[in-house]
Amino acid sequence: MTTLPIEPAPAAPADARPTPVRRRRLTLSGVNIGDRLYQVVLTGLALTPPLLLLTLLAELAVSAWPAIKRFGVSFLWTSVWDPVAGVFGAAPMIFGTLASSLLALLIAVPLALGVAIYLTEFAPKWLRQPIAFLVEMLAAIPSVVYGLWGIFVLIPFLRTYVVPPLRAGLGWLPFFSGVFYGNSLLAGGIILAIMIIPYISAVSREVLLAVPASQREAALGMGATRWEAVRTAVVPYGRTGLVGAVILGLGRALGETMAVTMIIGNRAEISASLFAPSYTMASVIANEFTEATGDLYLASLAEIGLLLFVVTLILNIVARLLVWRVASPAGGAR
Fold it and tell me: HSE of 172 in the Cβ direction (CA atoms, 13 Å)?
């Protein structure tokens, strides 16, 4: 019998390894269940803030409906605020809110833009971060601390050093006439200006940093000085974003409550004088909400809150759109 030689099996390659067993993934209609759950959770979290915003708007509208039905549009320009008689008009609060906010912008915008331009264009690098940090620290101070500072420092300073020369030189103007009691529209506007400077300055600084370096180089290459380059090339390019920064500051000023409540005087009257006490929409809600007993009284306060909410929301949306326009690659003034 002939025996056939048995050939040995070929040796396995040195780098061959056992093939691992693939774990089966739980799928639902071809989509991994973990991925679908993750997507659902993130979507829910992303939709929560807008839903809360809509819920707040709906709640304010429902609460304010009795006052809206009773007073109608005349609520906006009626000056009588009499809880005893059940007659309510928001004109003094609207005037005080707008007047104090505009006064704050007149004071804060030049200071905030000056700080932003200095930090981005002229300050030495070792000095930029410390100054920026100190300016932004103003936003971290509690509102009630600003109010106390206004009572014990600002009002005595205005009474001693600011109001007498203003009354002596400009007393013939209605803006600087009358008796200065301390708590006034002027004091409220100055406090608001100090509080919104860090917001306008921070956003303006980011807008100026987003301006391409080619804008500065082109102006300097044509023989412009550094200040001329800033004035003719940098600021015009970021003009839209700077306007957005100012609007953000205005929105912050409109909603400020505690500091303004402590020093503005809280008198529901319309006066052209900056020395007279005034009232704001946020202040009347903070002062009178706990004392409101009647349904119409509560509804009127809710309507003021609704007005303040809508105005602030619109201003913030517009400001964000303007800032994003500059921050985008194709943004900037053209």
Answer: 1
The letter for the amino acid at 135 is V
Residue 47, CA distances (Å) to 35, 41, 318, 325 in order: 18, 10, 21, 24
d(CA 225, CA 246): 27
Alpha helices in 90-142 (DSSP H): 91-117, 125-137
Phi, psi (degrees; rounded to nearest 5) at 26: -75, 120
Element (H, E) at 27: strand 27-28
Number of helices (H), then strands (E), in the chain: 14, 4
- Cα end-to-end distance, the chain, whole Å: 101
- Rounded to 10 degrees, the C-alpha dihedral 217/223/228/231 comes to -50
Give yes or no for residue 47 having a pLDDT over 80: yes
Determine the Cα–Cα distance for residues 241 and 51; give it in Å rounded to an integer: 28
Helix (H) or strand (E) holding 88: strand 87-88
Nearest Cα to 118, choosing from 99, 132, 134? 132
| Secondary structure of residue 143 in the 3-state scheme | helix
Q: Is the pTM of this model over 0.90?
A: no
Give tens-digit pLDDT for 271-285: 889 999 999 999 999
Phi, psi of 88 (to 5 degrees): -135, 135
Report the relative pairing of strands 87-88 and 81-82 from DSSP bridges. Answer: antiparallel
**Whole-number pLDDT of residue 153:** 94
Any idea which residue has 């040995």 for tokens? 8
Cα separation, 14 vs 26, in Å, equals 35
Tokens of 203: 């956003």
Best CA proximity match to 77, nearest among 88, 67, 96, 91:
91
